[in-house]
Amino acid sequence: MRLRSHLIVLVLAAVAPLLAFAVFIVVQDLKQQREILDRGMRDTVRALSSAIDGEVNTSLALLETLAAAAALDGGDLKTFHQICVRAMQARKGAYVTLFDVSGKPRVNSSRPFGAALPNPLRGTRPPGADLRYPNVPLGGGDPVKQVLETGRPVVSDLFISLVTAGPRIGLDIPVVRQGRVRYVLEMSIDAEEFARLLVEQRPPADSLLALVDRKGLVIARNVDSARRVGTPLGASLAAHAAEPEGGSRVGRTAEGVDVYHVFARSRLTGWTTSLSMPKSDALASLTEALALLAGGAAIAVLLGLLAALVIGKRISVPISSLAVSADSLARGERAQLDVSAVRELEELHRALVTAGMEVREGVAERERRRLAEAKEAEAHAAARAKDEFLAVLSHELRNPLAALSSAAHVLKMADPASETAVKARRVVERQTKHMSRLVGDLLDVSRIAVGKLALDRERFDLGEAVGRLASVWRASGRFERHEVSLETTPVWVDADRARVEQIVANLLDNALKFTPAGKAVKLSVKEEDGAAVLRVADQGRGISAEAAGRIFDLFVQEGQDGEGGLGIGLALVKRLAEMHGGSVSVAGADGGGSVFTVRLPSAPQPAVQEPAGASRPRGARSVLIVEDNDDARQMLAEELALDGHEVRVARDGSSGLALAGEAQPDIALIDIGLPDMDGYEVARRLRAAHNGQRIGLVALTGFGQPDDQRRAIDAGFDAHIVKPVTAERLKQVLAELR
Q: What is the distance between the alpha carbons of residues 124 and 462, in angstroms, rounded to a whole number?
């Protein structure tokens, strides 16, 4: 058989397996697309269920905050009513009710204080009492009764409110004082709010999204919600949703439409989120894909056969010509071959002639390969160094995140007034400050490396600054595991106060980290040989002589098992000290441990001293908050309200300007990144509107560069606070504004 015949047989032998493989690919693709559809719908419904849980968790957190209000300790219900009204201003579809142990409502944020309100324990009726919603119970007294009996929070099913006569759900928590339940605090939420939340999640087109309570009744739908609320799902869908775990099925809606149904049940509320798509729409793309793949496979096979015939001819003809010219090649003569269509045959002909050249090229190729391998080894070394740094960074971030997660769980479960909750709040404050300092150190090292860190110098007493910092740390509980002593004398420096405090904080944090509990840490500030000298001595395990020479290098870690941190704190101390014209060193301490010494150039004492931190006495202020993040705005408002301030909130610049015009505030806290106009424009307009009248303006922003601070001051702000805002910093700024 000639070569062409062999190629034809080869192509024919390949056709059958190729067709079988194409069929297999089509079937597998169909199966995969079905799995993708099912997985996508499952992911969507889980995301929607998580969004509902997030809304419920936010509401429960707000209730916990209200339950801890001091007004309830003394029974000052009128003040508590005012707090509830302010807290619910941003939630138009919800209100808060306070019940006593008899079930009598004492406060309702949607009604004036003292207004007559129905008792749900007496007014609750079984389903059928309200003809508009025959499947829904009337009154909602069961959750209140359950909280009074168990002392635990309850998320209710759908009920008809005695106050609004509409379908709602209730979130009820106990208000515990002196170990017993004094009140029940309930947030009643309109079912329409959940319908709005479902629509905002932008479910797939032509899909039907429903939220169902534990009794199988519809709380909300994205389609025709007002008419379908309080009704059960279709029989087949309801049977699916009643299963203990989520899943997907084919069923029929109450309207008689065959659908592909996916559902998920929330562990928090017990509610079920249901997503349905018309069966014909859900599987239409799969059928089209099957037809397209089958047609494409057939066309590919036919084209392959045709190409095999053509290419076989173009190969066989030059090979036959090469065989005829074999004698010429044997004599060393250059055969004239017609091989324009087959490059490999021409390359074979040139191979013997260029053998010597190929040897030389082989040597050059080996050299290039050696260089490439060396570069690859360098790249691997750099990748390993990056991976080691990322691993340490991950460890440093996971430690405080783990503590924050545990503290959040404790705060959710424990009595807010208990010692356990107090300790948990201290953990949250301590770990939040630690993470903020960690991120700040990383950014500062980067700024120093590129020469973009500028110093904002001022004349101040180093001893007084160190003493203030130590007092703040002591008040926050940072020293509770160690014996920390302070010995300072007045020494004046011309330096950046914030950067000097950063130096002290890093050295002090390093000392506390490596000093065992119960041991001593000593801070001292004094003047030596015309220099301001700061010393931080600890009783840790000390630093080896080898490590002392490189401990201030970037990413050097002396600790073991990750306790040494990222290796940037001491490097940042060294660079900041040198930027001030000073230095830092480390030496062993008598009796073990280490002593870190920072020397900064001293400055003459100013002729007139202004007391540091001088501020006007604290007092209740009228505060306006303009912030577009709902959680941040609400929590900041609650924090200020609990401190006794009168707080108004707005989510954008326009509404903030309107509120400021209605009731002129003493202070305005303004976020820079607002949806309609930036915070700089809001500040300029407030300054123009309050011409001649003093109003304190504070910028809240995530941008903390010197240029950002100057821009805020130029826009009319009195102070510039970088997020996240600590309670101490906020109180300090409010006190300093006159």
A: 68
The Cα 172–Cα 149 span in angstroms is 12
Alpha carbons 484 and 23: distance in angstroms, whole number: 77
Asked if 229 contacts 191 with a C-beta cutoff of 8 angstroms, the reply is yes
Given a contact cutoff of 8 angstroms between Cβ atoms, the answer to whether 570 and 510 are in contact is: yes
Torsion angles phi and psi, residue 643, rounded to 5: -85, 0
Closest to 712 in 3D by CA, of 697, 691, 734, 692: 697
Give the DSSP H or E segment for 176.
strand 167-177
Strand partners, 584: 598
Residue 656 is encoded by which pair of tokens?
A: 């903030």
Q: Are 548 and 511 in contact (CB under 8 A)?
A: no
Cα 6 to chain centroid distance, Å, stands at 65
Residues 102 and 148 sit within 8 Å (Cβ to Cβ)? no
Is the Cβ–Cβ distance between 485 and 571 less than 8 Å?
Answer: no
Instruction: Indicate the Cα dihedral angle 478, 479, 481, 487, nearest 10°.
Output: 160
What is the pairing mode between strands 719-722 and 696-701? parallel
Pick from 192, 219, 175, 194: nearest CA to 84:
175
Kindly report the pTM of this predicted structure.
0.40
For 731, half-sphere exposure in the C-beta direction (CA atoms, 13 angstrom radius) is 12
Q: Which residue type occupies 33?
A: Q
d(CA 18, CA 15): 5
Rounded Cα gap, residues 474 and 398, in angstroms: 25
- Identity of the amino acid at 671: D
Spatial neighbors of 7 by CB under 8 A, at least 6 apart, are 308, 309, 311, 312, 315, 316
Question: For residue range 112-171, what is the model confidence (pLDDT) as tens digits?
Answer: 998 989 999 888 999 988 889 999 999 889 999 999 999 999 999 999 999 999 999 999
